[in-house]
Amino acid sequence: MFKILRVNMSDLSVENQDVPERYRGLGGRGLTSAIVADEVEPTCSPIGPSNKLVFAPGLLGGTNCANSGRISVGAKSPLTGGIKEANSGGQAGGYLSRLGIAAIVVEGLREDGKLYKLYVGKNKCELSPADDLKGLGTYATVDKLKGAYGEKVGFAAIGQAGEWKMPAASVAFTDRELRPTRHAGRGGLGAVMGSKGLKAIVIDPAEGELAPLTDQESFKAAAKRFAKALQEHPVTSQGLTNYGTDILINIINEAGALPTRNFSSGRFEGADKVGGESLNKVTLERKGNPSHGCMSGCIIRCSGDYMDENGEYFSKWPEYETVWAWGPNCGIDNLDAIARMDRACDDFGIDTIETGNAIAVSMEGGVKAFGDAAGAEELLAEIGKGTPMGRILGSGAGAVGKAFGVRRVPVVKNQALPAYDPRAVKGIGVTYATTPMGADHTAGYAVATNIMNVGGELDPLKPEGQVELSRNLQVATAAIDTAGLCLFVAFPVLDMPDALTAIVDMLNAKYGLSLTADDVTALGQKVLKIERDFNARAGFTAADDRLPEFFLREKLAPHNVVFNIPNEELDTVFNF
Ligand code: SF4
Hints:
By secondary structure, this protein is α+β, with helices and mostly antiparallel strands. The chain has helices at residues 28-39, 92-98, 138-149, 160-163, 189-195, 216-232, 234-243, 248-254, 271-274, 276-285, 320-326, 335-348, 352-364, 373-385, 388-393, 397-403, 426-434, 447-450, 466-483, 490-495, 497-511, 517-537, 550-553, 567-570; strands at 3-8, 13-18, 53-57, 71-76, 83-88, 101-107, 116-120, 125-129, 154-157, 171-173, 182-184, 198-203, 305-307, 313-316, 411-412, 415-416. It binds iron/sulfur cluster.
C-alpha cells in the first residue's frame, strides 16, 4: 500500500498516512496539484507557514517502463503566486516509488532559522539538524551528505538561492552519478523548501522493491512495445540521443524564432557556435560521453558530459533552453562560458531560464553589454554571494525589469519565457499565455507540430488552429506529467498510435484498470481544472492569460510578425 509521508517542519514530526481515496489514480503532477489545491490557502504567502511543498513520483514510477522515473514538485509559487508543478529527472522519483511513497508533503516552517535534512528509508524516516550545510551550494552539500550516507542513495537539495528564498530558486536532484545536475527549476520551489528550513532530502532505496503489478505479463508486453516506439522514432533514437536538446538551436534559428538579445530578434549570428552539433563535436574532441541518461531506465539519453578544456568532467550538457538563455538571449556565443554558467546555476540552485532572462533584461537596462560573457558571469556570481544585486537578479526577469526600468520584459504570470519566440511559433505562444504555470514550454509543446511536423503540420506563423493545438497538448502533457514520464516520450506518442496505447495498457496492467485513451485525456483535463481553479481562487483572471504587450506591437525579424491570436480565442483554450 502506497503512503503519503507528512513532514511537519514546525514541530519536526514525520508521519505516514494512507493515501486518501480522493487521491487514488493520481501521481506526479496530478497528485502534487491536487494536494496543493486541497490543502494550501490560495492567497497565502508562498514562503509562509501555510504553503506546502509536495514531492510525488508518477503513476508509472518504480516499474520497468522506460523513462518513467520523473519526480514532480508542487507548491504555491513564490514567482507566479499561482499553483506550480515542476518536474525533474534524476534518481529520486524511482527511489520513492520503490519505497512505496506516493508523496512527501512538507508543511509548516522553522522560525528559528535552523536547517534540517530529511532521511527517507524503508523502515525509517526522520529529520535531523543540517546547520553544517548552511550556505553551501548543491555540489558541496551532496559531497558532505555522501560522506554521511554513502553513494547508494539519492539526494534532493537546495543551494544558496533556496536558503535566501529567491523566487527563481530551484530544487536539485542527483543523477545516477550523484551529481546535483537535475532540477525542478521553474517557479521558485527551492525558495519554498528554504523557507521551511529543509536543506536536503536523502532517499535511501535499500530494501525497496519494484512497484507491484496487477498483471505482470501484460505490463511487460506493453513496456516492450513502448520501448520499441522510443527506439524507432527518429527524435528519441537519433536527434536527442546524439545532439541533446541543444540540437534545437540551429532548427529554431532557421525558423526565425530563436529569441536573441532579450527577444529583440529571431535569429542569432552565433547560433552555430552554441548548437547541438558544436556541443557534440567539442564533447567528442575532449573525450566526453555525448549520450547520457539522467535516470535509470532512460533509453533516450538526451544528456551528455560537458568536459573542460583539459578533458575533465565539468558538468552535464546544458539543455537547449539553458544554452539559449545564456547564449543567444544574452548575445553570447561561447559554449565554455555557457557551461560554466549552467554549472553555477546548478550549484546555487537557481533556474537557468529565469536567471538567463533576468540577466538579459538587465543587459537591456544597461547593467552590462549584450555579448559580454565575463560580465554575465560576474552578475551570476552576485547571486551566489547574495549581494543586493544578486538578490534582485535572483528574483527573476519581472523584478529585474522593474528595478532597471526595462519595457521589454518577457514574462507571463511573472515567469520568464523559454527559448521560442511566440511571434514566430504561435502555438507555443498560446501555451505560454494560458498555462496555469506561467510561461512554460513544457506545459504544451506546440513547437513539435509547428516546427518539427511531429503530430501533424501547422504553419507556425499563422494564427489558425493554434488554440486547438495548444489545448490538446496541454491536456496530453498534464497526463504525461501525472504518469511520471519524461516529456520527450511525447514525440513517439504524437506520431505513433501504439505508443499511447502502450502507456494506457501499462497503467491498466499496473493498477488492474480498464482505462481507454479517452480516460487518459479526461485525466489531463481534470488536472488542468484543478490548477485553474486554484489560480482563480488566488485571484487570477483572464487578464493574466496574456502575453506582454510588446509581443503584440513589435515585429520580430526575420519574418516581421507579431503575436496576433485574439484574446477571445485565448479564452477558449480550456473549453472542455
Ligand atoms: S531523455 Fe533526457 S531528460 Fe528524459 S530522462 Fe533521459 S536524459 Fe533525462
